[in-house]
Amino acid sequence: NTTPDQCEYTETHLCVDVNATGSNTGKDWTNALTDLQIALCLADNLETVQEVWVAEGTYYPTDDGDREKTFSLVDGVKIYGGFAGTESTLADRNWPAHPTILSGDIGVAGDLTDNSYHVVTSNYNVEGYLDGFTITDGYAIHEKFFYGGGIYVSRSSPTLVNCKIMGNYAQGSGGGLFFEYTSYPTLLNCEIVGNTADEGGGIHIPNRGAHPTLINCTISGNSATTTGGGIYGIKDP
């Protein structure tokens, strides 16, 4: 997809729908962007954009097989999933009825070994916001990328709301989520289920200054080869 001309935008939110067939501008549902990565790029560069609305469907970090590509949260921008693709206000959204999936299954369908290392990342002072998504099929197995198959957070403080982090894997730590380096993430009404790693199958919090807050979250069915099936944390001195 071709990135639209940024000079044309005055909208405060962009619409994304993988099944849209309009002019691919993101200005409304009829002409929604089909590529979430383009929407995030625009949101990062346009001062007017405060929100990204994403319709039900499955979205992948890339279509070129590059396992290092990921959905990077955008500072100050709220990303909402769970739309039918007809709503005119955020209050109209019924996110449980419209599953919106961020998947790392970028290669051969069902083959984990060519999946994204991290499906979602939040790095370097980003205060992003993700609401109403399922994050799945991350596969962090590499000499450099072996933490945080589902979501990798470093030196940032994202907010995750109404998200389900499931079916992710990390060779090292944090199959579902990995937090490190003065990160202060907040998770509200989230599910962390069915993730796997060597340490901290669901969540890993190393001794590196990370301080996550979890409110009304469910952690179940995760597994670890050595320590901490659900959560593995190392206390700061």
UniProtKB/TrEMBL annotation:
InterPro entries noted in UniProt: Beta_helix, Para_beta_helix_rpt-2, Pectin_lyas_fold, Pectin_lyase_fold/virulence
Pfam families: Beta_helix (PF13229)
Domain named Right handed beta helix: residues: 113-231
Name assigned to this protein: Right handed beta helix domain-containing protein
